[in-house]
Amino acid sequence: MRDVAAADLNCSETVAKYHDTGTVNVYNAGDCGGAAMCKDVDNDKDYSRDGDCTGSDNDRTSSAVNLGWSGTNDDVRFYFNAGYNGYVGCLGRGKFWSSMGTYDDRVSSHKWANC
Question: What's the predicted TM-score (pTM) here?
Fold first, then answer.
């Protein structure tokens, strides 16, 4: 059996294969298509400036998957403005958004929290 590369997996397959790896993965394609443009273990206040999601990642998120560890602050809150402003929603541990809906290509920051 062939080991499928992460870039070949959709969102639900990514959760099944890589759950509990401690990252939030964001993609510039729908349904977690292609390689993740950013895999982050901590908060990222401004995608346009610094952090693991940086520069060209700003306003390009089309899908996301939460592969966080079980524990406190294992959910991820997304925001459409830098500095954690303009709340988009909270993605629970082991969950994914195959589409960002009205916030497609509008996410600029995220932080680990409890939903």
Answer: 0.91
